[in-house]
């Protein structure tokens, strides 16, 4: 499976119908996941992140760690957008 994190507008949303999961259950599930991702974002941002913890690994270690952290925050941001898009879609059903 290839997930492209820039295609939020092209997501496939669930169809709410009488033989499927209720709109309410789906909506609440996405909202709960959204709350957890926001908690995760806050928790990661609170982690102490300082060059003094990397310099012994060489002159580029902190820059590499910064790049990795930015990439992780980018992915978390897209997970947040995914969940928001689903919750918004379901709120309009």
- Distance from N terminus to C terminus (CA atoms, Å) equals 28 Å
- Please estimate the helix content: 55-70%
Please provide the count of β strands.
0
Structural class of the secondary structure composition? mainly alpha
- Show unreliable segments: none
Can you summarize the main beta sheet?
none
Secondary-structure element string: HH
**What share of the residues does DSSP label as strand, in percent?**
under 5%
Tell me which oligomeric state these chains represent.
single chain
Shape, per Cα inertia axes: elongated
What is the total number of structural domains?
1
- Arithmetic mean pLDDT: 93
Cα Rg: 18 Å
Tally the helices: 2
Verbal overview:
- With 93 residues, the protein is an all-alpha fold.
- It is elongated, with a radius of gyration of 18 Å.
- It has two helices and no strands.
- The chain has one domain.
- Helix 1 runs antiparallel to helix 2.
Which keywords apply here?
93 residues, single chain, elongated, 59% helix
Write the layout of secondary structure elements.
Blueprint (H helix, E strand, L loop, with lengths): L22 H24 L14 H31 L2
Offer a quick outline of the entry:
With 93 residues, this protein is an all-alpha fold. The protein is built from two helices and no strands. It has one domain (21-91).
